[in-house]
What does this fold into?
Amino acid sequence: MTIREELERLEHTQLDKKAAFSDESRGRLRPEDPKTEDVRTVYQRDTDKIIHSKAFRRLMHKTQVFLQPEGDHYRTRMTHTIEVGRIGRTITKALNLNEDLSEAIAMGHDLGHTPFGHAGEIALSEAMGQPFRHNEQSLRVVDMLENDGEGLNLTYEVRMGILGHTGERIPETLEGKIVRWADRMAYVNHDIDDAIRAGILSNSDIPKSIRKILGEGYSERINTLVCDMITTSREAGDIHLSNQVEQALAELREFMFQRVYRNPVAKGEESKARDMLKRMYEYYYAHPEALPEDFQPQMSLEGMERTVCDYIAGMTDNYAVDKYTKLFIPAGWQVHG
It folds into this structure.
């Protein structure tokens, strides 16, 4: 018996019957050498594939909410991803489900995010004349764009969990549903923390009715949400918050849209970022020869619009600024470090 087979056997003896068992996965897009699966379960392997990918490394230089903030402690897409992973694993473990699956989904859920956060999504949507959705792009990254166009060849359950972490599609596994909730729990609360750090919000600004239910501070709110989900889900046999806590979280999210996500201080640079990305899109569309060599084969397969979109969506904030500067700012005006 291999180590992998032993781990799979332990899952069946230790996990809840509703867990997504590794040896019952619906499989990958393409078969892989079975010798590579002797130690890790398929979901462990998927996590490793994701965290060793180029797209994952780029998350450290992609904006969460605040564009180019002054300070070392603001969240990035990577720190957000880690926080989602930890919240997801805590809930998954308490419900006796498959932690390896929830971790893999969490690590891959935001790989398709553009530079400059949701401003980048808006820019690419406008440039292409159709909605750009980062969850769909995340699936595209793991299926097609990574590994020189071969993709990461992840399992069905991880792929659909990534796609379903937001939007209309709901993940089929309980672990995927947990990550969907963990994402919202993480970003609403850490965005409050960042907004307080930026001086555009204080904890006392949060309505008392919400604080009474969820708690007064960051840790207390996270603890309330996690504990409520564990208790409610155990009783329901599915992944849920209690009605009261779910309503409070929805009200907190709406409060954040009013006070932070549409705040001119937090979002004051977004119009510049959108214009920058749209102008680069137009440039590369008109000058396909300027695209990197590894994007050239894609043009004949999927056309210019999709290829340019993929290139720009994969940029980090700093890389986008650097490319824009080289393309559009006269050399004598550029600032050199």
Remarks:
- The chain has a mean pLDDT of 92.
- Residues 3-267 form a domain with the Hypothetical protein af1432 fold (CATH 1.10.3210.10).
- The two ends are 57 Å apart (CA to CA).
- The CA atoms of residues 301 and 307 lie 9 Å apart.
